[in-house]
Structure formats: C-alpha cells, structure tokens
C-alpha cells in the first residue's frame, strides 16, 4: 500500500476543490440556461431573445433582427425593467421554430436566372431538410416542404441541361447563343460610342471581339466594316502623330548637337573663364541639359506611338488573314493630291537643308562665334 502523502492531503484543500467544482458547475448551468425570454421595459419596449447573463443589478439579452442578419447583446439595468417573462420549454421550442423559419426566407429562387447544381443541393439538404430534422413538429413544415419541391424541380431542370435566362427556361445551347448575342450587342454599342467620341484606337478591341464571335453572323456583319474603319482611322491618327514626333525628335537631336558643340567650344576657349564668361558657360551647359531632356521625352513618346501603331496594324493583319479579304494598309495622308505634292516637295527641301547644315555645322558655329565677338567689341567701343 502506498503510504506516500497525497497531493490532496493538505489541510483545507478538499474544501477549496469542492468550492471550485461548485463554481464550475454553476457557470456551466448558467451558460446552459440560455433560453428565450420576454423583457418588458418601463418605457413600453418589448424585447424577445436569449438571456445570456444576469446579476443583481443588470440583465444581458441577445437579440436578433432582420431574420438574423443583425444581432446585438444589450445590457439593461433592472431598474428600467417592468417585467420579465420566463418562457416554458414548449414556448421556447415554438419561438425557436418560428425564429429559424424566418431565417429560411433569405433563401429564395431567382426569378431571372438559375443557380449552380451544387448550390441547389446545399440549400435543400443543409438548410431546408436540416430545419425539418431540428423542428419535426413545426407549424411551418408544409411551407418548408413546398420550398424543397420548388428548389428540387428547378435543380432537375438545370441537371437536364436547361438555363433560366430573363425568367425563361431554354436549352443551354440556345441560352448560350442568346447570352453571346447580348454580349455582342453591348460591345457594338460600346464601340459605336467610342467612335462617336473620336476614340478609334479604343474602339478596335471591342469590335475585334465581336468579329470573332461564333454563331453570330448578323453581329459579325455589323462589326466588320466598323472594325476596318476604326483601324484605318486609328492608324491615320497614329501615322500623323508618329510623323510629328519624328520631326520633333530630329529637331531635338539637332539642338542637342548644337548645344553640345557650343558647350565644348566655350570650355576649350575659356578654361579659366570668370565673371560674365563663366555665366555664359553655365547657361550653355544648362541649355545642353534642357535639350537632352527634351530629346529623351520625344524619344519616349515616339516609342509609345510606334508600339500602339504596331498593335493596331497587327490586329488588322491578323483579322484579315483569318477570315476576311485582305485590306491594303498604307500610311494615309488626309490632304488632297495637290497639297500632298507640295508637302512632299517641302519635306524634300527641308531634308536637303538639314543635310547641308549637318555637313557644315562646324563652319557655321565658327562664324557665329566670330560675329558674337565682333558685336561685343563694337558694343564696348
């Protein structure tokens, strides 16, 4: 026989253990005594819910609203309570059945569209039939059974390959055609709106989706000419923008070269420049930096325009190679033929001038420096 002292043998320990057990039992019983009650306040308010805690001065009651979607635990001073009605088990069962039935009302069939089969099974088995299991004697049993029948009938239609669209049941293939037609019409309207705003490049993508729709020949026939027109007009604007940016880029490059040469000349002829000459040298270097920034900006814009133009051209070429007669894409010019000839001559003349300037820029810079020097001398005299 083990005679070693037990850890429960300390004086007073059995009494402390007994007291702790009684406290635990009282707590468990208090938690289990969560039953529906009616609390009437002195101001006439009537609250129905579960009493969760109570002491000599206050009472806490758990309340639910809007079919259980909103809940709160309200603590009330007993001095504000006119009457507390404790429900019997039968009253509580009736209240709970009604309360749970109200929660079922959030599950309704959609009059316009169907659900997935898995959702029908979840609601039928885990909501409606679970209610009948928990409340077999509920006065709402017939209503819940009717809900099960309605949901089961709609589920069977979905399993059979039908789709509810705008409240009308039809085979899935027909519904898919209708959904595609509606989607195509939305895209067409979107594209027409963009074209009316002059946003031809943005209209290309929705029109491209429509012209590739299978089983929608009417929509495709409407979208094809709009797509060709939007591509051509978008490319026209992009070509114009590209030409303008190429001109800006050439000018920026020329200004950078001129500023860089002026800076090197100023630094070579005035290594110990001070005063006004040093200020001129600083201004020249600042001008070089500014021209370089302009050049970088022009190059970035030109690169973006070229990428967008390539994207539009690729879309049109892909479409034409897949399903339609090829469309010749040329760099468009919105001017009439006579104006085009004059414009071409002007561009050739400007190109010759630019080429001559590039070949003789050193001499021009020297002449400019000499002129500035002479003018400064005359000004001093």
Which structural traits does this protein have?
single chain; 381 residues; alpha+beta; SH3 type barrels; five-stranded antiparallel sheet; two-stranded antiparallel sheet; 9 helices; 7 strands; elongated; disordered N terminus
Helix and strand topology:
Blueprint: H1 13-32, E1 36-41, E2 46-54, E3 58-65, E4 70-77, E5 81-86, H2 89-104, H3 117-134, H4 141-159, E6 162-165, E7 168-171, H5 172-196, H6 200-211, H7 217-269, H8 275-323, H9 337-380
Antiparallel strand pairs: 1-2, 1-5, 2-3, 3-4, 6-7
Helix pairs in contact: 3-4, 5-6, 5-7, 6-7, 7-8
Describe the structure.
This protein has 381 residues and is of the alpha+beta class. Among the domains are: 15-87, SH3 type barrels (Roll), CATH 2.30.30; 101-160. It is 67% helix and 12% strand. The protein has helices at residues 13-32, 89-104, 117-134, 141-159, 172-196, 200-211, 217-269, 275-323, 337-380; strands at 36-41, 46-54, 58-65, 70-77, 81-86, 162-165, 168-171. It has a five-stranded antiparallel sheet. Strands 6-7 form a two-stranded antiparallel ribbon. Strand 3 (58-65) and strand 4 (70-77) form a beta hairpin. The longest helix has 53 residues, at 217-269. The radius of gyration is 43 Å and the shape is elongated. Residues 1-35, 269-273 and 322-351 have low confidence and may be disordered.
């Amino acid at each position: 026989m083990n005679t070693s002292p037990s850890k429960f043998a300390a004086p007073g320990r059995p009494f402390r253990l007994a007291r702790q057990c009684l406290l635990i039992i009282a707590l468990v019983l208090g938690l289990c005594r969560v039953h529906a009650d009616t609390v009437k306040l002195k101001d006439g308010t009537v609250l129905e819910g579960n009493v969760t805690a109570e002491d000599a001065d206050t009472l806490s009651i758990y309340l639910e609203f809007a079919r259980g979607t909103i809940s709160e635990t309200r603590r009330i001073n007993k001095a504000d309570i006119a009457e507390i009605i404790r429900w019997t088990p039968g009253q509580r069962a009736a209240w709970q059945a009604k309360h749970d039935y109200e929660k079922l009302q959030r599950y309704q069939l959609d009059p316009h569209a169907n659900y997935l089969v898995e959702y029908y099974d979840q609601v039928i088995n885990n909501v409606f039939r679970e209610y009948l299991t928990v409340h077999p004697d509920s006065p709402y049993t017939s209503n819940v059974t009717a809900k099960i029948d309605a949901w089961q009938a709609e589920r069977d239609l979905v399993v059979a390959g039908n789709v509810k669209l705008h409240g009308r049941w039809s085979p899935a293939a027909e519904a898919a055609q209708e959904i595609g037609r509606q989607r195509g019409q939305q895209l067409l309207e979107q594209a027409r709106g963009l074209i009316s705003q002059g946003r031809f490049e943005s209209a290309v993508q929705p029109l491209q989706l429509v012209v590739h729709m299978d089983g929608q020949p009417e929509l495709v026939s409407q979208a094809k000419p709009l797509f060709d027109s939007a591509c051509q007009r978008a490319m026209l604007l992009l070509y114009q923008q590209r030409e303008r940016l190429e001109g800006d880029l050439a000018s920026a490059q020329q200004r950078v070269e001129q500023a860089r040469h002026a800076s090197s000349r100023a630094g070579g002829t005035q290594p110990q420049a001070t005063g006004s000459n040093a200020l001129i040298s600083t201004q020249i270097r600042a001008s070089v930096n500014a021209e370089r920034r302009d050049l970088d900006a022009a190059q970035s814009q030109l690169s973006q325009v070229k990428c967008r133009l390539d994207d539009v051209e690729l879309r049109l070429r892909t479409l034409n190679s897949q399903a339609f007669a090829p469309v010749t894409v040329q760099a468009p010019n919105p001017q009439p033929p006579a104006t085009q000839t004059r414009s071409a001559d002007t561009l050739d003349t400007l190109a010759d001038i630019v080429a001559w300037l590039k070949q003789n820029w050193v001499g021009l810079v020297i002449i400019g420096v000499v002129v500035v020097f002479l003018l400064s001398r005359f000004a001093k005299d």
